[in-house]
Design a protein that fits this description.
153 residues, globular
Length: 153
């Protein structure tokens, strides 16, 4: 069973307790007819976050959906502590689910069951829209380990 701590960082990302607003425009200035447009953020922005919960396994931490300055999306598993096991994978799945059926996208092998890790979301996978589950899945035994359904602030 794999028991490993991996700590990664995204420069400029606020702690997971701070969920940023995702408005692309600012309200117009008083007395102005033209809307004010804000520049893209200089660093990553946390769009959604939720507590990671274990599914018949011990798990804690935060799962976040993060937008990079270039528009790319990333799943952050932050301050996690997941019961060790074999062959864990990280998925995003449409809806609120504990299954890898119906549109699940495997992001990567879980690099460590403790710490903070970031996983790139393939282009075209709209985890920033609608309801998505971040799922840690044990491929060897085909069972869910932990899940979170990140929501916007």
């Amino acid at each position: 069973y794999r028991d490993k701590t991996v700590v990664e960082t995204l420069r400029g990302l606020d702690p997971p307790t701070e969920v940023a607003r995702t408005d692309a425009t600012a309200p117009p200035a008083a007395g102005s007819d033209a809307p004010a447009v804000t520049a893209p953020p200089a660093g990553p922005v946390r769009l959604r976050a939720a507590s990671l919960r274990g599914i018949d396994h011990r798990a804690s931490g935060t799962a976040s959906i993060i937008r990079q300055p270039d528009g790319a999306l990333v799943v952050g598993l932050e301050d996690i502590d997941i019961e060790p096991g074999p062959d864990y994978r990280v998925y995003v799945v449409p809806g609120d689910t504990e299954s890898t059926d119906d549109g699940a996208v495997e992001l990567d092998t879980l690099r460590g069951n403790q710490g903070t890790q970031f996983y790139d979301v393939p282009a075209g996978v709209g985890v920033d829209q609608g309801t998505w589950t971040v799922l840690v899945w044990c491929k060897r035994f085909a069972v869910p380990i932990a899940a979170a359904v990140p929501v916007a602030a």
